[in-house]
Amino acid sequence: MDRPLRVAALASGRGSNLAALVAARDAGRLPVEFTLVGSDKKLAGALAVAAAAGIPTVALNPKDYATRAEFDSALFGRVADSGADLLVLAGYMRIVDAAVVAPWEGRAINVHPSLLPKYRGLHTHRRCLEAGDREHGASVHFVTAELDGGPVVAQARIPVHPGDTEDDLAARLLVEEHKLLPAVVGAIASGRLRWQGGPLFDGAPLTRPLSLADL
């Protein structure tokens, strides 16, 4: 590609993973151009992060649409109109209609706070502690219609310490997410990680999740 990778992001919360991507770009470690940051919440912190970085933003209210599919179609339409090559779900907390996701196969990734396939969905830190796991982590995967079910491309792992709370795990894991997501986007931007009917890394089918050391 003879230009920077064009990246759009969707986020529902404070935008810390988006901020990590912007910081990596500003430090010269991530050769991308941000085309849009969208949200389902007009007061999402991610929109303020984007505005401060000069990235166009859009917020749509799901209640303004008759169905989930209509809302998803409208928001993803804005993403498509921005010219994005890659869509990053960076703390986007809505399940997306399968028909809306389908055209983005191989062009959308999500960061999820668990070692997938463990603990899809919400409350991952709590579920990790309740299960007595000795290890926790974050995963970046390609997005499919299945909730948190697309091919996992990279993971970061942390130990679970005796006495850890949900907040303890969340705080320690977020540090790793902020490294992992920019590294994966960077691998896509460089062409090392790409989609050809499934994830390829350095030209070979991906047989296991990558680590930060691999990236």
TrEMBL record:
Pfam family, one: Formyl_trans_N
Keyword presence, Cell membrane: no
EC code(s) of this entry: 2.1.2.2
Catalytic residue list: 112
Entry keyword annotation includes Membrane: no
Entries under InterPro entries matching the protein: Formyl_transf_N, Formyl_transf_N_sf, GART, GART_AS
Swiss-Prot/TrEMBL keywords: Purine biosynthesis, Transferase
Membrane spanning stretches: none
Catalytic EC class: transferase
Segment forming the signal sequence: none
Gene3D superfamilies in the record: Formyl transferase, N-terminal domain
Binding site for N(1)-(5-phospho-beta-D-ribosyl)glycinamide: 15-17
Binding residues annotated for (6R)-10-formyltetrahydrofolate, in chain numbering: 68, 93-96, 110
Catalytic activity reported: N(1)-(5-phospho-beta-D-ribosyl)glycinamide + (6R)-10-formyltetrahydrofolate = N(2)-formyl-N(1)-(5-phospho-beta-D-ribosyl)glycinamide + (6S)-5,6,7,8-tetrahydrofolate + H(+)
Domain Formyl transferase N-terminal, chain residue ranges per copy: 6-185
Residues flagged as site, Raises pKa of active site His: 148
Pathway: Purine metabolism; IMP biosynthesis via de novo pathway; N(2)-formyl-N(1)-(5-phospho-D-ribosyl)glycinamide from N(1)-(5-phospho-D-ribosyl)glycinamide (10-formyl THF route): step 1/1
MF terms in GO: phosphoribosylglycinamide formyltransferase activity
Function: Catalyzes the transfer of a formyl group from 10-formyltetrahydrofolate to 5-phospho-ribosyl-glycinamide (GAR), producing 5-phospho-ribosyl-N-formylglycinamide (FGAR) and tetrahydrofolate.
Annotated NCBIfam families: PurN (TIGR00639)
Family designation: Belongs to the GART family.
HAMAP family in UniProt: PurN
Protein name: Phosphoribosylglycinamide formyltransferase
Species, as recorded: Luteibacter jiangsuensis
